[in-house]
Each structure stands twice: as C-alpha cells, then as structure tokens.
Design brief:
Order of helices and strands: HHHHEHHEHHHHHHEEEHHH
Shape: globular
Radius of gyration: 30 Å
Strand content: under 5%
Largest sheet: 3 strands, antiparallel
Structural class: mainly alpha
Number of strands: 5
Number of helices: 15
Distance between the termini: 92 Å
Amino acid sequence: MHRTGFRHGGESKGARSAVEADPSPAKAIPVPMMAAFTALPHHQDALDETNSNTIKCIPDYRNRIKRMIVFWKSNYPDYYEQIVVPLTPEQKANTRFFYNAEEDLRYNILDPLSLQNFMSATKIKPNGKEYSYDHIRKYHDAILYCSGIAKLPLPPTYRSSMKSYLENMKKEKATAKSGGKTDEQEADQIPFVLYKDICQWSLESGNLMLWTYTITQWNCMARSCNIAPLGFRNISRKEANDSITIQYEINKQDQTGVNTTPKNCYANPFEPAICIMLALGCYLCVNDVMFDRESDSIFRKSGKDKSASDSVGCMVVWYAQSSKYQRNWQFPVVLLGL
C-alpha cells in the first residue's frame, strides 16, 4: 500500500529534515558541563604520590633546563628576557614537578634554533672529548617533558625542526666516535678478573654485603638500581636444585614491569668466592634480623631508595683505596663506575 506524505504540526517533511540537519549551535545537542570537584588535602597527597611514579626523571630534566637558562642569560640576554619566567611560590613549593628550580620557560614561544644553538655549543667536555648523542638528546627530552608539566604547547615547527637537527647530530657523533673523540660510556665495564678480585677482597675483609651485592649484580647482568630494591618476592627456586630465578619489577626500558625478563642464576661449586648460592646463604644468615621486618627487602636495610647502592658505593671506594687494589690494579678508580 502506498503511503502518502503528510504534514505534522504544519511543517512539511522536507522542511523538517532541513531543520534536523541544521548544524548551527542553536540546534546542537547540549553537552553537560563537568561537575566541579576539589580533592581534600590528604586525598590530593595520595594522588600526587601516585603521579610521582612517572616523574623520576624530573631532577635531571630540571637541571638541564637550568643549564639552558644560564647559557641564554649569559650569551643571549634579550632572548632570555623573552623566554624565561620566574616560578610562583606555589610552583617552587611543588618539588615533585619543579624540583629546586627558580625559573621556567615560556615553551609556547620557544625557538628551536635557540635549543640547537645551546646543544651544539656545549657538546664538548672539559677534557676535550665530545658528549655522547644520548646526553645531548636529553636536553630535547627535558623540553618535551617540562612543556607538558607547564601545559604550554610547543610551537608547531618545533618537533620537525628538532627531528632534522637530531638526525644530523647523530651522524656527527658517529663520525666523532669513529675517530675516538666521544665518550659513549660514563664508566668502563668491569673485567671478570677484577670482579673476582672484588669478591675475594670482600670475603677477606668480612664485607658480606658487597660480596653478595656484587655477585647478584654480575649474575643478573643488571644495573645497580635494579639490584638495590630486590626482595624475597623477586627470588624463586621453582623446580631447579642448582639455580634460583631472579625477576625484578621494573627496568630502564620497561617502567611498568610487564616485560621484565627472569634471570636464572646458577651455583658455582668450583669457585665458591663467586657462588651466588653461598653468598646469599651467608649474607642472609648473618642478617637474619631482616626476617622480622615488614619489608622483605634484601639489601635496603633502612628502606630508603638509595640506601643500598650508596652503601655499596662506599664499600667499593674502600676496596679501591686498599693496598691490595693498588698492588694488583694500576688504573684509576673511575673504572669501577664511581
């Protein structure tokens, strides 16, 4: 059956369709405004503590921003007056995001050429060697991160300009590296014979913490900051009788801990001085007081983030200053990564 057109309320079908298709604000569907919310002080503190897990790089980034500001103030005072702004008392008090900074940048008017000028002018170390590419690139990283904190978008041309510059910088560093003009590593690797010597000295001096810490770090092929927070939760034996598995929560490349790799560490009955099973057994027996604590940390006795690594650093200095080290190793302490 054919249905004829009809009118509704004196309005034709065509006219009604045109009105419904009208994109004018008067016909737009109203969007409800977000409800106002202000957190209580103690709730805000808890939120800030959670958010602080993403800003461990803040001290380094703020120090890099400070170096740029000093450079511009000294060499380009007119530009400094335009780009630098003092922090408010409230911002200075927020050490989570501003660390010890006194000034910040107007990131929305930052000329990428000024940053490139700074990076190229400061690429040489006092010893005449060139800084590594990663060290130079982190100034760019600092700008990206801190502009987000300030909620000031960078100029539209900033990223494309910096991308081109960093590609050229990478080529320059590759050329410098081939000529032996760059320091890619802040510290040299510790050779196996020196590792064994440190372990032997630790045993002879009764330094069980340095002995166990060094062996654990060597077996995990890890950075010190990954070994310091280890607890009993990170160690398992599973079904093996001659090894343990160590898996830390996060690493440098995976801050969420989703893809951390378990490390199988095997006993070494042929060389007890570097046997991780013997070292852990001796260390835990002597420090059995740790079993009565709420924390299950193995090396952090005081619970502070750097308490373990700082202690180990002091112990290695003692080793480096010992007569045994001076007699057996004729190279500077910097080899130990101190």
